[in-house]
């Protein structure tokens, strides 16, 4: 079983649900308290033992490259003033640990992943959708990599949503269940509520075998006229092991406004330096 050494972060989407905030700033740079979403995703990848981060970017996303680079002037000035630089430590990705490829047109998540095919090469890899903020210990990808060591093949993280919400997501047809692991028998992107095979939705973390790139190569369009990753994964079911992992933790959809506010509140209430103030303020506000 080959280890999971590489992660793909598709960050070329337009972030239209967050306009005008995301007109000039990538959605993935929106902070939850004091760290951008993309930083949480990279930290989650590192915790899972992943070494190489591959970002699929687009126009207007250069802030992400700057974030993971050395900020020479900032660091020099901070050192001269005797300020603590350790806060910047997680933002350093050396040249051997990161790569950037461009998706020239936002043709869909499946297309974004396919743009990384040459860097991924012939090995299994992880995918992170950074606007899905997965909050837990251990992190979601660590839980998935642990499961991968048991069953191999392809894995996706899933969670239950109220049935009437399924039409916004990729939905699985569940098979046999063993603790947090569920066999995946089918996958469908954005089904009609009455046709959905379950209320278990795919939630932004994947471990996939490289063969998925060959399916994506065909560039077939699916729901919404986009090249869908879900459709490519669905084709692999039956020929390769495919399991879902129910994440033991909380998930916030930070691509939506309500989810983003919830994530900020949840993290703020866990931070010893601000939790007291935030709690008192929130209680006061709700009176
Ligand atoms: P979303 O549909 O949530 O992102 O795609 P979006 O298109 O940026 O957001 P809205 O709906 O307009 O507000 C899920 C993930 O896939 C990436 C996005 O950046 C996000 O991380 N993506 C999507 C791409 O990289 N390329 C695409 O063509 C589509």
Walk me through the structure.
The chain is an alpha/beta fold and 287 residues long. The chain has two domains: 6-255, Spore Coat Polysaccharide Biosynthesis Protein SpsA, Chain A, CATH 3.90.550.10; 256-287. It is built from ten helices and 13 strands. Strands 5-4-1-6-11-8-12-10-9 form a nine-stranded mixed β-sheet. The chain has a two-stranded antiparallel sheet with strand order 2-3. β9 (170-178) and β10 form a beta hairpin. The radius of gyration is 19 Å and the shape is globular. The structure holds uridine 5'-triphosphate. Uridine 5'-triphosphate binds next to α4.
Tags for this entry?
two-stranded antiparallel sheet; 10 helices; 287 residues; binds uridine 5'-triphosphate; 30% helix; 2 domains; alpha/beta; single chain; nine-stranded mixed β-sheet; Spore Coat Polysaccharide Biosynthesis Protein SpsA, Chain A
């Amino acid at each position: 079983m080959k280890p999971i050494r590489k992660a793909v972060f598709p960050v070329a989407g337009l972030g239209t649900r967050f306009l005008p905030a995301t007109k000039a700033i990538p959605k993935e740079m929106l902070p939850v308290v004091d760290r951008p979403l993309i930083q949480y995703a990279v930290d989650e990848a590192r915790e899972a033992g992943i070494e190489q981060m591959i970002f699929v970017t687009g126009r207007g996303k250069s802030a992400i490259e700057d974030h993971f680079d050395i900020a020479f002037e900032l660091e020099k000035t901070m050192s001269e003033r005797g300020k603590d630089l350790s806060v910047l430590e997680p933002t350093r990705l050396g040249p051997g640990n990161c790569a950037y490829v461009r998706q020239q047109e936002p043709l869909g998540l499946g297309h974004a992943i396919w743009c990384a095919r040459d860097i991924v090469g012939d090995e299994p890899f992880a995918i992170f959708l950074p606007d899905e903020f997965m909050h837990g210990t251990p992190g979601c990808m660590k839980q998935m990599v642990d499961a991968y060591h048991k069953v191999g093949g392809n894995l996706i993280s899933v969670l239950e949503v109220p049935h009437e919400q399924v039409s916004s997501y990729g939905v699985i047809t569940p098979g046999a269940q063993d603790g947090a692991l569920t066999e995946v028998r089918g996958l469908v992107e954005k089904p009609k509520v009455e046709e959905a095979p379950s209320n278990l939705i795919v939630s932004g973390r994947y471990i996939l075998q490289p063969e998925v790139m060959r399916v994506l190569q065909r560039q077939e369009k699916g729901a919404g006229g986009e090249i869908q990753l879900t459709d490519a994964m669905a084709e692999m079911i039956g020929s390769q092991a495919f399991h879902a992992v129910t994440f033991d933790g909380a998930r916030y959809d930070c691509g939506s406004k309500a989810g983003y506010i919830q994530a900020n509140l949840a993290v703020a209430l866990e931070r010893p330096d601000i939790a007291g103030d935030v709690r008192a303020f929130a209680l006061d506000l709700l009176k």
